[in-house]
């Protein structure tokens, strides 16, 4: 907090708009969640607790929302939800402030000024939905459905978003995945035949975290599990060029050279294989390709890795031995946002193989159930055949990237280059690509080429700022969403308060749009409650029960964990699929680019007080955030003649930003770090606007040809006094 | 033999009075802003410096500087050293006005001045501040009673004045007791700050040190106030009396210094004397200005017997005491900002009194001075001076015309 | 003496990840204005030299002293140490003198500097969520802490728990539970891997409550006053008798006495 330089006056400015969190809500009329009252979840005075789910990040912890006089006054972690276990993180605690934010968009908006001018007029849903549907239809009629790009980041109503997209017939779907964890997902697909196994920390003794900053990039239950394991005495090796809050808890912090994690892991494999420290039984019984792997990794000795990684050979060797000593209670964590370098896929493959060598499958890595399994779905006709190819090159350029989800930054590039064809419309929901995509300038340019942009959001986010129509979704405390399955329970999100203003649920919005696009048959649910009833039908429980209890129990499915959905049915250390696609079939070294003299690796990474690009306007989080500054090693700063709190100019090949400097010991001398999510363009975010700078302005677009991952640490910058 | 009271005499708006009035008006204005928008609107006080200029100046200095009243009352009424009598009334008035000023200042400083009576109703018998509050309230009343005869004389109600005179002794005793208590208790107020007040100042005998220094400064104030008022009001100076008072000061200060250093030695804190940076400087400043210099000056009859010597020597005493009170209540208090804890928006890391903050105190002082001036003009404050005062002509002191009754 | 069976909170700095969920939770639970907070995480952060670094965080709020100085100091008794642990505030009686802020060795109470006489400024500090305790709930900050860096429970049990943790990992902790004895003991207990002063906790505060001396001092007021009054009365009488005898016998202070008499007339 010492880095906070928000002055008292700033706070007064904010406080002026709202004395206290709840006072803000008091500015808005109270709308008691009538249904909740009828269901007896809240009493006649509008007091009670309602079970629902957090949506401040994709972890979706269980929440028990406290309602007083029809107003939500506090959110508590639901002890029955495996993701919260009774706890909420700072973002989860602040959730009601998102709902009561005075900047909420509460009626549909239609642009009146130039794009990006931020001039809108309020409109009725009729008018706004008609406009969106007509514009989309017009484009479809003129250029084909593929000329409308759809994009959205993981959320619970995404099934219906995808339903709209598929019914509409566009192949062009952009998700956050290529910016986030595609490297990890594709690597797991290739190795284990599933996207992401569940991790268990029970009894774990040794953990290697590769840039997985769990103490700041928080998933409440996993963060807690890690913390408890450390308490118990588990050893943690943590690789990160920054001394993060996770590094502080690690047994061993290794300030690895960015992009060289692969060399480290290859060297671990080398030691474990050459010293025969692997789990022979597991390898023999359940894996394929050990010999090829063993042969290929022979050159990757710790001595080879040391100069590449800046981690000395002895340390690498020691860690390899400790890791295998602890087996099978040893785990190499894949990481989550693994989009760091174009070689990140290989890093992920190496990590996946490392786990296989110590045989922790079934103990610390567990098969994960498919999303939504066991629940009913509304009936619908088959989707129209899509004839157009995806704009982003999946699969024709990126054969191994999961087809459905695409490569977002390439989609954007294609909008700009009009190659392979021209896009004309963009329908975006719950996503902020203007900020989350690398190279903001490019994104804005691509948008300027489009005929029509519609955004579904709860705020006038940076993307909505450039939209033609903004459709206000009800906040997560005001709406139903499809059920969310965690473990063997399906959890409910339900309105804690009635939607404010004219805001509506996404389920409603998509259905209404579908109707207007002549796709009514694809949306065979009366309303949100009907949707949930259809989901619950196979389980034989009533919606009322689920609302009361917060979840429905799913029948336990017995399955053999020791079968894998790979071509060989085994864990593939050698992947035929990779081989046939022309990529290295076993993990192999790929030299990442390095900054030249005077340049720094530009690092990005989450902070515990914000989620991505959508919470910086939350007054409660703003209150307790650190001022976003550029981290630079103190000695380096001295060499450059820079002091703490100097205003500096950070320049990459494509852009520059000004930001204050934090001269700190907590980062490698060849790196700088900028907190993502700041530097908003939208003046509709009165709390967040004007704070910090956007790293997306600086980020170059690089796509890993195997996983489609954007390489977010591969941008090099110079820093000088502004 | 009495002074003719000239209530009918017109008050001339001399430049001095005009300035006072302007200062008072400005202070009043600032006070209004404070009541409307909060203490933070006019002062730089903050959660780190919750007590600073106002408390140090208005309360700590104010109360100590008002101690002339009880000192003189004791000398004259209890020890019946009656030759000092001419000094009594102005001393009582100074004390009374001083306490009224303290109370007025507290009404500005308290967050909830309208609740000041809560002290009487919701008593916390463990609180030193409660004790001080009650003592100050009672003592101010006592001072009013002690001063009342002068007022009634002024109002030409000698009967009442006479009556009050007869019962003055118990009140004087009460006044001395109350003064002893609350003068020491201001030191007692800081006992609880053992962990935050610098060891050069914090000691369990703080109350005793406060009491002794209050007596000394009481003498100093009588001298100073006589010297100043004699110049301002063009009045004669009671040099021989003042000189005698001044001769007591070195004893008082000597005892004070002895206790102070014995205490530092006893608690093993002597090493702080030169090793605490700014704190050491402040400590020595206070000791040299407030004790060493006055001891040297007032040990010399020549200085004691000169009007300038008295003025300057007493100034040292008073300023030295003020430095001491500022030190203990503000400068030497380790503020929690030194603990690297609070986020910036919670903790101002620095404090310097604002212009408005100071102007409230200045306005109050101006009001006090004006009240004293008016009292001197209209009330029999300096009675009998013709007989007892030894008028000495000095170049700085023009002989003053006093109209006497007969 | 303080109640043995009282609630307390235990903060373990080795577990805290500086996520600030506790702070947001407190702000919401207690409806704290945006420019205020009852709880804060120290900003000490990183220390050492690259690459040999440590990091410490301290969640800081009211210590809920067993013998609170704020309560001892307050002239109107606005603070109460509840039997079950929390030190709570009575906003109805506070006069806004801010002595509690000075008296608290931990710099805890905060004041409404920007409220005028109509809004009525008050003091604010952590209440241990006494209202939640009354409802059978843990304090909001504790309830949400994802890593159990903050836990709530019976003070004696927590002290035992804290010593248990030290015993289990002597290499990890400073061998002391801050608050077990400091300032007479507190109901907020702290475990740390770095010296407590690096967490910003005042060291050398001692085990004797700060208010012991001042309470003794105030306790002596009445006897001292009575004795002093008696002495002064006696002295007055003595001096008076002596002087008047002398006056008659030797007329030494004749003029003075006459002057006095004149004055009395
Ligand atoms: N509080 C909070 N929690 C979140 C989120 C959030 O926005 N806020 N978002 C959620 C989401 S969507 C995701 S994907 C996860 C992401 O969580 P993480 O996987 O932890 O990803 P980041 O925080 O983006 O980056 C982690 C670290 O990678 C480091 N890094 C950068 N380049 C390299 C490199 O080449 N090698 C190594 N070893 N490290 C490198 C950075 O310094 C950073 O500290 O967090 C989730 N949890
Ligand atoms: N520079 C940089 N870029 C990154 C990353 C990074 O660390 N640094 N991280 C990458 C990662 S890991 C990810 S996952 C992506 C995320 O990228 P995005 O998904 O584009 O970003 P978010 O901020 O998660 O976007 C969420 C949007 O949803 C809105 N929103 C919030 N609640 C609701 C709701 O209830 N309904 C609707 N309709 N909208 C809502 C918010 O206002 C916000 O505009 O970014 C990637 N890009
Ligand atoms: S991790 Fe935090 S923000 Fe994400 S769902 Fe859980 S409580 Fe909400
Ligand atoms: S919630 Fe827990 S881990 Fe997070 S800052 Fe507070 S005490 Fe530390
Ligand atoms: S920490 Fe301060 S405010 Fe809290 S009980 Fe102790 S003295 Fe009172
Ligand atoms: S500010 Fe209020 S609570 Fe604090 S000591 Fe003064 S009267 Fe008591
Ligand atoms: S106990 Fe309650 S009042 Fe105190 S810091 Fe925690 S949440 Fe805030
Ligand atoms: Mo992500």
Describe the structure.
Chain A is an alpha/beta fold and 722 residues long. Chain A is built from 24 helices and 27 strands. The longest helix of chain B is centred in the middle third of the chain and has 28 residues, at 239-266. Chain B has 406 residues and is an all-alpha fold. Chain B has one domain (54-335, 384-405): Formate dehydrogenase/DMSO reductase fold, CATH 1.20.1630. Chain B is built from 17 helices and no strands. Chain B is globular. Chain B has helices at 15-37, 39-42, 53-65, 68-78, 85-109, 118-121, 128-154, 158-166, 168-188, 206-232, 239-266, 272-275, 278-298, 301-304, 307-331, 355-378, 385-388. In chain B, helix 4 runs antiparallel to helix 5 (85-109) and helix 5 (85-109) packs antiparallel against helix 16. Chain C is of the alpha+beta class and 265 residues long. In chain C, a hairpin with a 5-residue loop joins strand 6 and strand 7 (87-89). At the B-C interface, helix 1, helix 2, helix 4, helix 7 and helix 8 of B face helix 2, helix 3, strand 8, helix 7 and helix 8 of C. The structure holds ligand MGD (2 copies), iron/sulfur cluster (5 copies) and molybdenum atom (MO). Residues 176, 180, 337 of chain A line the site of molybdenum atom.
Strand content of chain B: under 5%
The largest interface is:
B-C, 79 and 79 residues
The shape of chain B is globular
Helix content of chain A: 25-40%
Our Rg estimate of chain B from Cα atoms comes to 22 Å
CATH topology of chain B: Formate dehydrogenase/DMSO reductase fold
Which ligands appear in the coordinates? ligand MGD, iron/sulfur cluster, molybdenum atom
Indicate the low-confidence ranges of chain B by residue numbers: 1-8, 337-342, 384-406
Quickly name the level 1 CATH class of chain B: Mainly Alpha
Could you write a compact summary of the structure shown?
The complex is a heterotrimer of chains A (722), B (406) and C (265). With 722 residues, chain A is an alpha/beta fold. In chain A, a hairpin with a 4-residue loop joins strand 24 (647-651) and strand 25.
